[in-house]
Amino acid sequence: MAYTTIDDPSAHFQAETYTGAGANTAVTFSGNSDLQPDLLWIKNRGADYGHFLVDSNRNISYAQNSTNAPYLEPDSTALENNNQNWMSSVGSDGFTTGISEHINSNLGSTFVAWAWKLNGGTTSSNTDGNLTSTLQVNSTAGMSIGTYTGINGYKTVGHGLGAIPDLVMIKGRDMSGTAQYWVVGAPNHTNFGNNSSKHLFLDGTQALMNNTTVWYNTAFTTTTIPIGPHASLNNTGSKYVFYAFKNVKGFSKIGHYTGNGANDGPFVHTGFKPRWVLIKNLDATQVWIMYDGARKPVNRDDNVASIYASQPAAEYTGASYHNLDILSNGFKIRLTDASQNGSGVDYLYMAFAENPFVTSTGVPTTAR
């Protein structure tokens, strides 16, 4: 059996940096394959502007259906905002922004974009659960985007992956008056466990939490996500979006590691050279940390650029304790900070590949 079915991860995920131009700015991805984004997450690197996220289930750009793209902010409980024409269009290998300090400006600000390809905006109705979802699935890369409308009570919704998801993010889009958290579940993760209600908030810094109104101690299955009566997941008539991921050898990995509290931190084996890494401390109040190969050109660089997914802060380029080595088959922590390497502390991570460790034809990749 081949090591991986995905020899070129850039066909499904890319990370790209660009500079704002003060007018509609066209960004072309530089990966080996063309990629038309279906999920696009952008951050202003130099200023405290919120993260920006759009997807083609909900209308990714003005050009998709002549209305403003409704964006969400991964660092915030804010509702969906469809009052701004900030994403002009997406193309076969990139996108064009409008003018906004979040994703473009005339001040020479730099930005980073993370993009995933699903199914070109083509969706289908899924009735696997007792809530109908509108799904877009990339079966090869193990990813799906779903939208649904809530009905109070304990429900299930279909995710379309054909396997128990390794990570799910759900966000309430339009229910005013109650904070709409980004609820994160990882049922295959040792610390979460299936048949539980353990979860995190992407927009918060809390340690792993347990609330029976979230997954109501019911199992994720190969077809459905359990949805409890928590307002951020299920309220009658309210709209929700979810992003679901399963591990795909050589392309993606959601897993965990235990910190050792030393500068020579743990090595985390992913089976590929990571292009993007997201990390969260499960035992204590700490920010979500993101690294990517587009902003970090070399290993052991003291001017490391980490981004806090849970905050609108500009990228952090200070002390070297925010340090991570990208290797041909994983990553190695080079810090003692509790956000990523507390002694005996458990961490959740999510990573996407730049190159598989070994291609389907047996060709190895190389480290930086």
Write a structural description.
The chain is an all-beta fold. The chain has helices at 62-65, 338-341; strands at residues 13-19, 26-28, 39-44, 52-55, 87-91, 94-97, 110-116, 124-126, 133-138, 143-149, 155-158, 167-172, 182-185, 198-201, 209-210, 224-227, 239-245, 252-258, 267-269, 272-281, 289-292, 307-308, 324-327, 330-333, 346-356. It has an 8-stranded antiparallel β-sheet with strand order 8-9-10-17-12-13-14-15, with no helix packed on it. A 5-stranded antiparallel β-sheet has the order 18-25-20-21-22. It is globular. The two termini are 28 Å apart.
Unreliable stretches (pLDDT < 50, length at least 5) are none
What is the count of β-strands?
Answer: 25
Q: Tally the structural domains.
A: 3
Query: In which range does the helix fraction lie?
Result: under 10%
Round the mean pLDDT to the nearest integer and report it. Answer: 92
Instruction: Please trace the helix and strand order, writing H or E for each element.
Output: EEEEHEEEEEEEEEEEEEEEEEEEEHE
Number of helices: 2
How are the strands ordered across the major sheet?
A: 8-9-10-17-12-13-14-15
In whole angstroms, how far apart are the ends?
A: 28 Å
What would you call the structural class?
Answer: mainly beta
Described by strand count, sense and barrel closure, the largest sheet is: 8 strands, antiparallel
Question: What would you report as the Rg, rounded to the nearest angstrom?
Answer: 19 Å
Range of strand content: 25-35%
Shape, please? Answer: globular
